[in-house]
Known about the structure:
alpha/beta, Purple Acid Phosphatase, chain A, domain 2, 9-stranded mixed beta sheet, 6-stranded mixed beta sheet, 10 helices, 15 strands, CapA family protein
Amino acid sequence: MAKGRLIGVFVLLSMLLFSCGIKTSEEDVDNARTASSHVEKVKASREPKEQVEVKQGISITAIGDMLIHSSVYDDAWNDTGYDFTPMLEKVKPFISDATISIANQETMIGGTELGLSTYPAFNSPQEVGDALKWAGVNVVSLANNHTLDRGEEAIQRAIKHWETIDMMYTGSYKSERDREDLRVMETEEGVSVAFLSYTYGTNGIPVPEGKGYLVNLIDQERIASEIEVAKEKADVVVLSLHFGNEYERMPNQAQKDLVQFVADQGADVVLGHHPHVLQPVDWVIGEDGNRTLVIYSLGNFLSGQDEFYRQIGGVFKFHVTKTLSDGKTEIEVHSPEFLPTYVKYEQGRGYEVIPMFQLTNQELPNAHNHYEEIKAHMSQWVPELKFIENEKEDES
């Protein structure tokens, strides 16, 4: 009997141990499971991700010749100093209504310490620069036929002032090292713009030996090289070209040929000066099929010249869109706009730049017809050119 009981107890213990072993094994399996180990769940196939497209945009405005004759700076004198801001007050909202604005500073702002002078050897008050800054300009082109009028001293004084007011300048430099520092404006919108500037000559004044950095002369080899560098460092390349024949309202063949050359190099925009009158807007196709936007001449923006077409300039505006898609970047310059302007004054006093669409017949006889003629002239090659005619208020 005792032996039988012992056998029964042994069998019972073995069964208990066996059942415990199985449970432990099952727990081990459960603990080892992951979310993907449940055989009853079938993985859903993932849909391909939608292509992400990001667009970033800026606008750029450009104005023509700031050609400061003695009548203009005399009118800016107010017994305590020079103040050019009232002359730009009515156009400030249109200049500043852009991400970047560039002006052609035709006369060096060497300042009063050097002695002010006018044609044929210009030197202007430094307050001209202050007024441009106030109006919303943040880049100035300095390469033109008057760059060397008063020599290196005027250039160095002018550049020192541009640096003091934090204004980007291009086309004339204080040293070779300064010249090699490509001017690129980085915007908050993530679009970068390079600015280059060149002139056909310097009114016969020789460039000082070893100091070619004082003024960029038009040289196709240099231009091609600098455009190539600019395209690597910036999204958009804008060239200021001082060229053409004075007082001619249409570009000559040399202008067209040079614009075609820079378009073939991949320049995005060309801003022309020197004729002192407006020349039309156009699109030029480069050899790679790229489109280059050009305004052959922006005319005089502020000057003391007194013939009708020399009193007309404008604010040229265009837009840039940068599209990031599928690892690729595309840049598009598009939607050009133009605001014709008129320099109003009487007997050498009261200089004021006024949008032409705001002019009355009292300010300019037959104002409407003159305005319509300018619109037709500027848009003859680009019928879709938009003219800015909405009132803007100065928000500063």
